[in-house]
Design brief:
alpha/beta; seven-stranded parallel beta sheet; 8 helices; 7 strands; about 15% strand
Length: about 250
């Protein structure tokens, strides 16, 4: 077993997840980069990190909506380097579900990625995280868990459940494993089916005291702090939102 700490970051091929992987790697960690559809991005990230330090990054593919795939991901994460010190539940589906048009498949998709997979992945990894001696879980939540976003009711409910899970698991797993969360505000505009219009972006920025998006590095910094900068914080959720939650 290596003495180098190891982190599994879900949804880490790009954007926030990749920034977390890069910052932890820069501190000497080995990183397991989970992806689903972004294998080429995950492969490129790991090649870049391994070029900087050999055998320090590895990617794993899993559909987090598939319960069997989640179990397999947990097994692979635990065995690849023989240890696991941190789990960052970052992977998330995000798209609008206007009330009246929402489908049960939307419910299943959004709850699977934002609640069910993080819960069962955490459960499967508890024995290995506990053996670390300083095991930690960080869940990426969203300020919209507390301040709902128009036309995104199912997503907001799923993230609210994630916040409740964070606090519940902090009690369940103490003192062996710390569990905390980070709630991003306007960090990086969503892509694909969740893409926002320029008008919506402008409306959001009007409610951000800092007056700008934060950038993915801001979330990575908060995650790194919770994993490496403190050993006595658990059950907490840090809003990284440029002060937006102050305005509601």
């Amino acid at each position: 077993m290596t003495d180098t700490p190891v982190a599994l970051i879900t949804g880490a091929a790009k954007r926030v997840g990749a920034a977390i992987a890069e910052q932890l790697h820069g501190l000497g960690w080995r990183v397991l980069v989970h992806c689903h559809r972004s294998e080429s991005d995950a492969q490129a990230l790991c090649q870049r990190l391994n070029a900087a330090r050999a055998d320090s990054a590895h990617y794993l593919i899993a559909d987090l909506a598939d319960a069997t795939a989640v179990e397999t991901l947990a097994e692979q994460a635990q065995t690849h380097w023989g240890r696991l010190d941190a789990l960052v539940n970052n992977a998330s589906n995000f798209y609008p579900t206007a009330f009246g048009d929402a489908r049960q498949s939307d419910w299943d998709s959004l709850f699977a990625s934002n609640v069910r997979a993080p819960f069962f992945l955490s459960q499967a990894l508890v024995p290995t995280l506990a053996r670390s001696g300083a095991g930690a879980i960080v869940n990426i939540i969203d300020i919209h868990a507390e301040y709902p976003l128009q036309d995104h009711s199912i997503y907001c409910m799923a993230k609210a459940a994630n916040a409740a899970m964070t606090r519940a698991l902090a009690k369940e797993l103490a003192p062996a494993i710390r569990v905390n969360g980070v709630s991003p505000g306007a960090i990086a505009w969503p892509e694909g089916s969740g893409e926002m219009s320029e008008a919506m972006q402008a409306e959001i920025l009007r409610s951000v005291p800092m007056g700008r998006v934060g950038g993915v590095a801001a979330i990575a910094e908060a995650v790194v702090f919770l994993l490496t900068g403190t050993g006595y914080i658990t059950g907490q959720i840090i809003a990284v939102d440029g002060g937006r939650s102050v305005w509601g």
